[in-house]
Amino acid sequence: MGKVLYNQQFVERSKLIDIEDRGYQFGDGIYEVIGVYDGAFFLLDEHLQRLKRSAKEIQLSLPYELTELKEKLVELVSLNVLTDGVVYLQITRGEAERWHHFPHESVTPILIAYTKIEETLDEASKNGASAVLTEDIRWLRCDIKTLNLLPNVIAKQKAVENNAVEAILHRGDVITEASASNVFMVKDGKVFTHPANNYILNGITRQKVLELCDKLQITVQEEAFTIHDLLAADELFITATKLDIVPIIQVDNQPIGSEIPGETTKKIIQAFHSSLQALRIS
Ligand code: PMP
């Protein structure tokens, strides 16, 4: 199972969490999932910057500096000899007697990070996968990566029960994102994705894809689109850490485009793989 980073120490994984950890009782905390490929982190600084932002948005002070945290995470991957997988990192508002309001300032946040072996979905990435639609019932600060994931859990369960890889969320008629990934649509050669506002998590993979589209001279419109637009799309794909980019060829049993991964999606996937390859060489 490997070592766990607990505040500033590497410890054995055991019963580390107290009943009154605020993450456990209230979901009062934030997290990140960072991809590791061939023993190297992918976009680590970007993930840490997002962590810092999430902390600020929930008025949580990070227990230590990002530069120090970065060193510890590199050490954790090396200690656990992780080649392909993720580092899961969370910070909660600490352990305190159960009252809803923030605890006294003497209560310190608790940071935990551990490694998890995870393979990329090569088959789905190559051949495409299916998704289901479900109402987005989350709160109005989806831009913060908080531990409150119950609506996402329920949505993903619906996907699993329908042999789908993801549940695409819609707020009324508008597509926001998916239960654990961002959603992109291709129409007439243009790429569309929901703007990075309070309705979605601004995925690190999403940001990388936008950068790659720019390099590939593919026009992107960060604009909300509807269920109707989505079902009439030429191509559809989702992005997330370690899932990378997965073409969606069916939604609620209806075909999307020609029901095979499209040319624009394939171009973006190829560029994404080149970035990963560059990581291996550097
Ligand atoms: N949206 C949601 C709701 C997510 O949970 C995730 C995965 N963390 C993403 C988008 C994709 O984000 P990233 O590319 O940073 O993994």
From TrEMBL:
One Pfam match: Aminotran_4
Task: State if rRNA processing is listed as a keyword.
Answer: no
Gene Ontology MF terms:
D-alanine-2-oxoglutarate aminotransferase activity; pyridoxal phosphate binding
Q: Which gene encodes it?
A: dat_2
The reaction(s) catalysed by this protein are: D-alanine + 2-oxoglutarate = D-glutamate + pyruvate
CDD domains the UniProt entry points to: D-AAT_like
Protein name, entry field: D-alanine aminotransferase
Which EC main class describes this enzyme? Answer: transferase
- What is this protein for, i.e. what is its function? Acts on the D-isomers of alanine, leucine, aspartate, glutamate, aminobutyrate, norvaline and asparagine. The enzyme transfers an amino group from a substrate D-amino acid to the pyridoxal phosphate cofactor to form pyridoxamine and an alpha-keto acid in the first half-reaction.
Q: What organism is recorded for this protein?
A: Virgibacillus massiliensis
- Provide the assembly information: Homodimer.
- E.C. number, please? 2.6.1.21
Requisite cofactors: pyridoxal 5'-phosphate
Q: Name one GO biological process term.
A: D-amino acid metabolic process
Q: Does the keyword Transferase apply?
A: yes
What GO CC annotations are associated with the protein?
cytosol
Q: Which keywords does the record carry?
A: Aminotransferase, Pyridoxal phosphate, Transferase
Family named by the database record: Belongs to the class-IV pyridoxal-phosphate-dependent aminotransferase family.
Q: Which residues cross the membrane?
A: none
Q: Which PANTHER family match?
A: AMINO-ACID AMINOTRANSFERASE, D-ALANINE AMINOTRANSFERASE
